[in-house]
Here is the input.
Amino acid sequence: MPVEKRKRDSVTLCEIISMLDDWRRARVVMLYMAMSGEPDLTPLFLLGVKMGKVCVLPSYIATSDTYCARAVTDLRTQLRRGHLGILEPIASCPIVDPCEIDLALVPGLAFDRRGVRLGRGKGYFDKFLVGLRATKCGVAFNEQVIGTLPADPHDVKMDLLVTPAGVIKFSK
Here is the structure.
């Protein structure tokens, strides 16, 4: 996907998410720092901070090989390269109880029209998402939505999928 199209589509995704009722109602939002090829949610993060939302990002915990959520207010000073080379919060950022997260924005390599997500194979997001009461919202480019993906019992389905083409809601 050409870089300029990826940038345009990322802006469109942020605009669509910012109009969702789930976004407006959310007090605590989990976002992510984009890896190569993923939608960039930086504008949405900045909007969330400006609106007074608690914006959290995944932070790797080596001792348990899992992730926690840490509150971040400044992307310039509170991030470092972490596990798998992903930008993540520094250790001084406060940990937020996952039960407090209202909306979780989740990347993936692909999504299907049933809410199934294909991650990068380590299961980190599924492990983190499994106990969340939050609305789980997949974020993807149109090209990442395919017919049907295989699903394992441990895979956590999305409640919504946002693409530049619009929003797909899945039954819970």
Q: What stands out?
A: The two ends are 32 Å apart (CA to CA). The mean pLDDT is 93.
